[in-house]
Amino acid sequence: MSNQTLERIARNKNVARAAARQLSMEQLHKLAEVIGEVIEQKNDEEKRRQEEEVQKARKLAEIREQINEAGLSIDDLVPDQPKRKRGRPPKNAKDSDKS
C-alpha cells in the first residue's frame, strides 16, 4: 500500500470504508491494533521532541544569564564575519577581448 493510498484513506471516510470492506474482521482488528501502536509511538516521539525543546530553551536561558552576569554580550562572543568576495572573474577574460 502506497503512502498516497494511506493518505486518501485517512482523509476520506468513504474511501476508508471501501478499503475496510476488502478486509476480514480479523484483519481489521489486527490493523486497528497496529495503527494504535503507531499512534502511541508517534505520541511518544512528539513528547520527547517537546521535552528536548524545553531543555534546550532552558539551557539557552541559563547561558544568556551567565553571559549577562559576566558583563558580556552575545556580540562579544561572535567574531566579525569575514567579508566574502562576491562572484568570480569570468573565465578567460583575456581571450574574450580578442574575439
Automatic annotation (TrEMBL):
It comes from Halomonas eurihalina. This is H-NS histone family protein. It comes from the Bacteria. Keywords: Coiled coil. InterPro entries: AT_hook_DNA-bd_motif, H-NS-like_N, Histone_HNS_N. Residues 6-79 form the DNA-binding protein H-NS-like N-terminal domain. Pfam families: AT_hook, Histone_HNS_N. Residues 69-99 are annotated as: Disordered. One of its GO terms (molecular function) is DNA binding. The keyword Protein transport does not apply. SUPFAM superfamilies: H-NS histone-like proteins. Residues 35-69 form a coiled coil.
